[in-house]
Amino acid sequence: MKTQTLALFFLATVTVGGIAWVFLLPHLSGEKNMEKRKASVAAKEPAAARVARGAQKSRREQVESTLKQIDIKSSKKVTLASRITQAGLTWSNRKFYIVSACLGVFVFALVISTFGLLPAIGFGFAAAFGLPFWLLSYLKKRRLARFLHNFPDAVDVITRGIKAGLPLLDSLKMVASEGQEPLKSEFRAILDTQTVGIPIGEACAKLFERMPVPEANFFGIVIAIQQKAGGNLSEALGNLSKVLRDRKKMKAKIQAMSMEAKASAMIIGALPPAVMLLVGITSPDYISLLWTHPTGQMMLAASAMWMFTGCMVMKKMINFDF
């Protein structure tokens, strides 16, 4: 009892001391007065200095406003139509839903005759709602990889064209006519957007909506800032090309350094199914209890769940975002 009383007294003392430290120390130490004095000194700035500083800030404010507008546009929620466009397909939303429903019905009819109703419902649901979106993600990732592979060369072509005296639009037309897919179609979309009256800066900024990668966002930001605030566009694009190539080298270096971890993860993930397959081939009666006995089925489901969790953890550990 005495120990509990001492402990409560100690905790109360620490609490009161912490509250006093937070609320009373700034007033007792003069910190508040110091902050007021600093604010009063900072506020007394000559009018001429404020005017000169305002002239220097004008370009920076334009740049900041452009960046805010691009951030607002890039933070919008991605719709299904945008995901289909990013995957390089020309489907409508209705066609996508129809194909997904037909795929789910086909898998359901294929599985129900062999495994029963509940497995058929599960596989049909996965085929209708999981497989189409996975396919969109796969096509999008493959298209983005092709875009990033050729994008630094396209920026170099634009930079050389501007240094040679060509306008920006003519340099973009060179990439749209001579580039490889998907660069050709994306730059042609920029030119088509600019043709209907949208400024070239906004047209280039829309590239990030169709190609959601940082490199496309960098390109749109550089063009939009140059159109609004001015500056040497060839120098800015040259610096951008260097940044893009450095990012490409860094990505390749990261992939090379992480290949050992990825190989280890693939081997560890493939061991249980491989052992199960070998035991099933050599001793089918021994392992058949896993899917014939209720306890075995429960153990198999729990093992599959833990295996899936482990694979997801390993995937997060070996995937590096930069």
* Low-confidence residue ranges: 6-14, 41-53
Shape designation = elongated
The sequence of SSEs as H and E is HHHHHHHHHHHHHHHH
Radius of gyration, in angstroms, nearest whole number: 31 Å
Compute the separation of the termini in Å.
57 Å
Helix content class: over 70%
Question: Sheet bearing the most strands, described?
Answer: none
Number of strand segments: 0
**If helices are DSSP runs of H or I spanning 4 or more residues, what is the number of helices?**
16
Q: Could you tell me the strand content as a percent range?
A: under 5%
Structural class: mainly alpha
Summed over residues and divided by their number, the pLDDT gives a mean of 75
Features:
single chain; 322 residues; mainly alpha; 16 helices
Task: Give an overview of the whole structure.
This protein has 322 residues and is mostly helical. It contains 16 helices and no strands.
Topology of this structure?
Blueprint: H1 2-23, H2 25-28, H3 31-43, H4 47-74, H5 80-86, H6 93-115, H7 117-163, H8 168-178, H9 183-195, H10 200-205, H11 207-210, H12 214-229, H13 233-282, H14 284-287, H15 289-292, H16 294-318
Short description:
The protein has helices at residues 2-23, 25-28, 31-43, 47-74, 80-86, 93-115, 117-163, 168-178, 183-195, 200-205, 207-210, 214-229, 233-282, 284-287, 289-292, 294-318. The protein is an all-alpha fold and 322 residues long.
